[in-house]
Amino acid sequence: MALAKKQSKEDVLHHLRHAILIQELQPGADLDEARLSEEWHLSRTPLREVLRQLAGEGFVEIRANRGARVAEMSHKTLRDFFLAAPMIYGAILRLAAQNATAPQIADLKTAQTAFKTALRGGDIAARALANNHFHDVTGRMAGNVYLLPSFQRLLIDHARISMTFFRPQDAEMAENLNAASDQHDAIIAAIEAGNDDAAADLAIAHWNLSRDRIEQFVMPAGLDLQLGTGTAPE
């Protein structure tokens, strides 16, 4: 991944975000400043600014006297993710239906076209990133300054986790990809109609479509908690 010429901070931000989202840089991996500085042909001061920005966005953790590392996906992180995701997705889509502008709806339709194109291809990372972009547009539609940072942090781990969902291993999983695309279309229709109840319901249905398959790979045994609660099902 080394580059031949000096890179700008924006170039490095883009490349590191991308590498983290597709797990080219694994969760918890140490980020050595000296190696990165040499690899990206960027001096230490702007590199540290890049790492601080990534930390603020949730991609990276900076530890006192121990340097930076890619944000972990620990037992607690995954537990929090599965508890928070349906609530946040529901709130985002409800607000999106209430607040979306015509240009934003056009952006969402463009994102959906790109997602369908990615599904027809075989690139797993492209599928995950196109899906993330679709949902990122809905977050900007919602327009809530308190909710958006939490949603964008959630999308980081959703992209990393969904590398599993977008690599179908049987016919059912392949069908789920088509169902996910159909649900995107339904989400667009609900938002365009301003139907916030339908949009919120679709958020939960969309989450549940991938939840069971994702859990098989990332949820520790005994952590099958009811969505939106802190207790295990009876």
What topology does this entry show?
Elements: H1 9-21, E1 30-31, H2 33-40, H3 44-57, E2 60-63, E3 67-70, H4 75-99, H5 102-120, H6 124-142, H7 147-165, H8 171-193, H9 196-218
Antiparallel strand pairs: 1-3, 2-3
Explained architecture:
The structure is a single chain. With 234 residues, the chain is mainly α. It has a three-stranded antiparallel sheet. Helix 5 runs antiparallel to helix 6. The longest helix is centred in the middle third of the chain and has 25 residues. It is globular, with a radius of gyration of 18 Å. The C terminus is likely disordered.
Low-confidence stretches: 220-234
Biggest beta sheet attributes? 3 strands, antiparallel
How much helix, percentage-wise, in residues? 55-70%
Shape: globular
What fraction strand? under 5%
Order of helices and strands: HEHHEEHHHHHH
Strand segment tally? 3
Distance between the termini: 49 Å
Structural class: mainly alpha
Number of helices: 9
Q: Roughly what is the average pLDDT, rounded to an integer?
A: 86
The spatial strand order of the largest sheet comes to 1-3-2
The radius of gyration computed from the alpha-carbon positions, rounded to a whole number of angstroms, is 18 Å
